[in-house]
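Design request, tokens follow.
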């Protein structure tokens, strides 16, 4: 099997670049479904890179799962959400809420916002940034600079790319940037320390789902 090398990294950059450009152009269309379609285009570009990488080879142990992954994923996901609340001053703010239809969240919100944000986005982003990008950068630098420096560089590249991707969707505040970097860095560290991806995926899922729970509560109380 061919290793994950600079070719895989190049495909990843091309894929996410095309996804950002294509999604950005589509988002400008004056159509109600344009924002959701633009997100699908972005994900398609990222997933194409993931598929290309796994078609070449599969790093040993990366897709294995252990029961401890669930514990760490839930704990760290909630801890990151608490950090976000502390950084943003959520203790002095109202619950976030979403538009309602006859006093209830419309079905479209669950399908086009809750499901993508809570489950699909974390899966796509973690497999792209913490599987492909992180592993490729680490493997390229491990022999020239050593495992520690390679791991730190891979973590920074992975977390930085994660922040930049979200910045491409709209302006980020300093608090947003710090929190996204914390999420990306934590998930990258989990992969580097365990050699497995699922703890990172679960951490990201719990982090996003916890916000959606706050939205549902806020909408109910509004």
């Amino acid at each position: 099997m061919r290793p994950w090398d600079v070719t895989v990294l190049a495909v990843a950059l091309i894929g996410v670049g095309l996804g950002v450009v294509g999604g950005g152009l589509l988002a400008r269309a004056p159509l109600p479904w344009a924002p959701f379609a633009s997100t699908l285009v972005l994900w398609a570009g990222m997933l194409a890179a993931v598929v290309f990488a796994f078609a070449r080879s599969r790093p040993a142990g990366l897709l294995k799962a252990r029961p401890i992954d669930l514990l760490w994923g839930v704990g760290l996901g909630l801890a990151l959400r608490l950090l976000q609340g502390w950084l943003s001053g959520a203790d002095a703010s109202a619950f976030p809420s979403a538009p309602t239809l006859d006093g209830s969240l419309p079905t479209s919100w669950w399908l086009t916002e809750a499901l993508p944000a809570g489950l699909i986005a974390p899966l796509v982003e973690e497999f792209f940034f913490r599987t492909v990008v992180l592993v490729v950068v680490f493997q390229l630098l491990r022999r020239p600079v050593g495992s520690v420096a390679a791991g730190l560089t891979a973590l920074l590249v992975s977390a930085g790319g994660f922040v930049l991707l979200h910045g491409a969707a709209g302006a980020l505040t300093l608090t947003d940037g710090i929190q996204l970097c914390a999420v990306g860095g934590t998930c990258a560290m989990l992969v580097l320390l365990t050699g497995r991806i699922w703890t990172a995926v679960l951490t990201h899922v719990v982090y996003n789902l916890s916000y959606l729970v706050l939205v549902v509560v806020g909408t109910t109380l509004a």
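Comment from the thread starter after seeing the answer: thanks! The chain has a mean pLDDT of 91.
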